[in-house]
Design goal:
It contains six helices and nine strands. It is an alpha/beta fold. The protein has a single domain, classed as 3-Layer(aba) Sandwich (Rossmann fold), CATH 3.40.50. The strands form two sheets. It has a seven-stranded mixed beta sheet. The chain has a two-stranded antiparallel sheet with strand order 1-8.
Length: about 180
């Protein structure tokens, strides 16, 4: 059996430690790029039930093009769960129906409750950026703390969505609910 390497994920985390040396637009672009790598790597540590997987692994970003450029670049070079990756911008719950992951950027956090309720019984990983949404049910919540990207994991929410999370990812989280 081939042994998995966890080194790329740890490199991204180490890079994020000093990511905000600059200011302004480049800081935002760098943060967005690093968060895109985090999103892609989080998925590697989450398991979906076999019946939830199809021909493509779909990552949707809700009502925003934030992250999509970098996610598409990463997806062009890698597969997830042995499948090609599809990155979509979705503007409605109906468009998000085939998603394995829904990313809700901070500027669209006001839609979180509606999305959470709609997908509460679906094998969908919900990733957010707004402080406090991890406690409210987001599967993974990323945020910047002391110029570093940190994340919390709501294991109960992940379990309730029929997914499972690796202990290695749980150990890296700032908080686990």
């Amino acid at each position: 059996m081939k042994k998995k390497s966890y080194i790329p994920f740890f490199i991204v985390i180490l890079l994020s430690i000093s990511m905000f040396a600059g200011k302004g637009a480049s800081q935002t672009a760098e943060e967005e790029s690093l968060k895109s790598y985090f999103i892609f790597n989080f998925i590697k540590y989450i398991n979906w039930p076999p019946e939830a997987l199809s021909d493509y692994f779909t990552i949707s970003v809700y009502k925003s093009d934030k992250f999509t450029g970098r996610l598409r670049e990463i997806a062009a070079q890698q597969k997830l769960k042995s499948m090609p990756v599809q990155i979509k911008i979705v503007n409605s719950l109906e468009e998000a129906a085939s998603s394995h992951v829904i990313v809700i950027p901070e500027e669209n956090s006001n839609y979180f409750s509606k999305i959470f309720q709609n997908f509460s019984n679906s094998p969908v990983l919900l990733i957010t950026e707004k402080k406090g949404l991890g406690r409210e049910g987001a599967s993974i919540n990323m945020r910047v703390t002391n110029n570093k990207i940190r994340f919390s994991i709501n294991k109960t929410s992940i379990d309730n969505h029929g997914l499972s999370v690796s202990a290695k990812l749980l150990n890296l989280a700032l908080e686990v609910y």
